[in-house]
Design a protein that fits this description.
Elements (H helix, E strand, L loop, with lengths): L6 H7 L3 H16 L14 H10 L15
Helix pairs in contact: 2-3
């Protein structure tokens, strides 16, 4: 049995709660549309829980792009 996902563990991977919300929401929509899973999940898990598992396992992350603003 897999352990439950704890919010603090997710914040260790993605320290900003707003970015965590955006990343997990985007990934859950991708999973809902049929994207392949990057980690093992139960069939009973919802799409958002599957996204959280991928984040907790370190399979999903984020990085900022370099963009110039202004001028």
């Amino acid at each position: 049995m897999k352990k439950d996902i704890v919010y603090d563990e997710l914040l260790d991977k993605i320290p900003n709660k707003y970015i965590l919300t955006i990343i997990s929401g985007q990934r859950a929509r991708e999973i809902g549309k049929g994207a392949t899973l990057l980690t093992k999940c139960s069939k009973k898990d919802t799409d958002i829980k599957k996204a959280f598992r991928e984040i907790a396992d370190g399979k999903i992350g984020y990085e900022f792009g370099e963009e110039e603003v202004g001028e």
